[in-house]
Amino acid sequence: MDERSWYGVRCVFRHRELGVYEERVTLWTAGSPDEAIGSPDEAIGCAEAEAGEYCAALGETEYTGFAESFRMDGTPGEGAEVFSLMRESDLPSGAYVGKFYATGCERTG
Fold first, then answer.
1. What tens digit of pLDDT does each residue of 10-54 get?
2. Computed over its alpha carbons, how large is the radius of gyration of the chain?
3. Degrees (nearest 5) of the Cα angle 18, 8, 108?
4. Domain map of the chain by residue range?
5. How far apart are CA 29 and CA 39, in angstroms?
6. What's the DSSP call for residue 90?
7. Per-residue pLDDT tens for 55-64?
8. Does the pLDDT value for residue 4 go beyond 90?
9. Handedness of CA 29, 15, 62, 67 (dihedral sign)
10. CA-CA distance, 23 to 65, in Å (whole number)?
């Protein structure tokens, strides 16, 4: 039986021409029948290989070398959590979101 686990891997890229950074979350399977669970290092390796292809296809884009993984429970489907990050902070909600997420410099869409 295949015991591969699903991972969401977040990588950060710099688009030099646009002057923006991009966070991308991609999905990967990792592990083997000999492992109880998959390997985050294997999933990150797959994501980093794809990151190189992504940068080559776009041009003027560089992979920053930052990647982190999240092992999913089960297989992807509707409503599946593909990535999660927890950060300790004493900031109130509005200040936290303003500092880390809604800074006013985001480009969405």
1. 999 999 998 889 999 999 998 754 555 557 889 999 999 999 999
2. 16
3. 30
4. 5-100
5. 9
6. -
7. 999 999 999 9
8. no
9. negative
10. 12
